[in-house]
Amino acid sequence: MADKNEILAGLAEIVEEETGLETDEVQLDKSFTEDLDIDSISMMTIVVNAEEKFDVKIPDEEVKNLTTVGDAVDYIANAQG
Amino acid sequence: MTAAPSAPLAQTSPVAGTAVLGLGVHRPEVVVDNEQICQWIDSSDEWIRQRTGIVTRRRAPAHVSVVDMSYDAAREALQDAGIDGSQLGAVVVSTVTHPYQTPSAAADLAHRLGATPAAAFDISAACAGFCYGIGQADALVRSGAAEYVLVVGVEKLSDFIDNHERSISFLLGDGAGAVVVGPSETPGISPSVLGSNGEKWSAVSMNNSLLRLRDALFDAHTSGDASQLMDPEQRLWPTLRQDGQTVFRWAVWEMAKVAKQALETAGISAADLTAFVPHQANMRIIDELAKQLKLPETVLIGRDIVDSGNTSAASIPLALHRLRSEHPEIRGGYALQIGFGAGLVYGAQVIRIP
Q1: Which of helix, strand or coil describes residue B288?
Q2: Residues of B with CB below 8 A from A41's CB?
Q3: N or C, which end of chain B has less CB nearby within 10 Å?
Q4: CA gap B48, B34 in Å, rounded
């Protein structure tokens, strides 16, 4: 179990590894596609790495609902809870 | 009471070892670059290269058929193996773009190669078709059912795409690759890992069946209104679609497990490989698969997708042929090949490079 700050920090590391973006650019209100310029293929890599890191399942059909970093953090927190 | 036959049945005598003995390809003459693609979809050369790794794909002209391409590839494979078409005991064609429900492409090909009366049949396993074919050929030869088997992976995908849709059509190309499988004192084909996941049947699929087109033609005839037949939004001719994200996820993380299983079943490790030849679906799938498999830097990776696009059942032999042309010293080394696609289905094995 991790709190939302820890999830955000962990997610930011995954995004940095996939895209090269600095971790402090990965903020809750940022949109993956619009602000962080993450394409659909990179998004899937991030999702799979997040599943492994946080020990949760994120089905394919949920991925399209994860518009912002905050959406992903909330989803992971709920899935862990 | 049971029937008691008076004579026992004879069965085939198994053969110990098999190998791929020869390899050949056909690369169609028409080159379609990304600039051409961008006349059909709103995209750019940079976007396509970055997302897929594809710079050009080849497409066959209208007068060249699936069997024509197969014949060209098969002739080279037979020559490479040093055998004649008449020595083939079976001809197996993996394709999803032969435009006849029946008869098979394989029967026509066998006849043209002088292989009659060889057993002849097609396999519908999409992008896994070549690996399914190798698995079948290995089994046919080792069981003693055939001495030499021709396996062809061939597609004319350009007949079954809609150039104006953007999920898959821009990736696809045409081509053929063929191999001859036969007996070998040294084992040259590992056990095949074949499987399916029909739960994801619609992840890569035709947009509709031919029956819908038939019904629309019938309706147009009876109503006298043919306008719907010309409506591009109806897209009556069956063409391919995919859910790219679902396929990407499955193709990398599930197929990495299958590739590892194939190595384990073969009794070798990644360090023993000379080459890794995955289905050429997308450069980012190839790169991510190689990363997941932790391949040593010495292992050559098939990246024919750059110039050939995704050619479904033909992509693995095309990529292997290119690697062998560019690096002749790889002959005799081990190649891990894995195909995966519509079904969803997958197949993988290790072969000794002919």
Answers
A1: helix
A2: 51, 244-245, 248, 282, 284
A3: N
A4: 7
Residue of A44, A45, A57, A64 to mutate when probing chain B, most B C-beta within 10 A? A44
Query: Is A60 in the B-facing interface, judged by CB distances under 8 Å?
Result: yes
State which CATH number among 3.40.630.10, 3.40.47.10, 3.40.50.2300, 3.40.50.300 fits the domain covering B17-184: 3.40.47.10
Contacts of A48 in chain B (CB under 8 A): 249, 252-253
What gap in Å lies between CA A14 and CA B312, rounded to an integer?
A: 32
Say whether B310 is catalytic: yes
| d(C-alpha B92, C-alpha B5), whole Å | 35
Whether residue B197 lies in the annotated active site: no
Domain B17-184 matches domain B193-202+240-352 at the CATH topology level: yes
- Top residue of A37, A38, A60, A61 to mutate, by most chain B CBs within 10 Å, is A60
Nearest residue in A to B283, CA atom: A41
Chain A neighbors of B253, CB-CB under 8 A: 48
Closest CA to B186 of B332, B83, B22: B332
Is the domain B193-202+240-352 a CATH 3.40.47.10 member?
yes
Per-residue confidence of chain B (354 residues) as pLDDT tens digits?
688 888 999 998 899 899 999 999 999 999 999 999 999 999 999 999 988 999 999 999 999 999 999 999 999 999 999 999 999 999 999 999 999 999 999 999 999 999 999 999 999 999 999 999 999 999 999 999 999 999 999 999 999 999 999 899 999 999 999 999 999 999 999 999 999 999 999 999 999 999 988 998 999 889 988 887 777 676 788 999 999 889 999 999 999 999 999 999 999 999 999 999 999 999 999 999 999 999 999 999 999 999 999 999 999 999 999 999 999 999 999 999 999 999 999 999 999 999
pTM attached to this predicted model: 0.92
Question: Can you tell me the ipTM of this complex?
Answer: 0.81
Whether B353 contacts B274, CB under 8 Å = yes
* H/E run at residue B18: strand B18-26
If phi > 0 it is left, if psi is from -120 to 50 it is alpha, else beta; for residue B95 that is beta
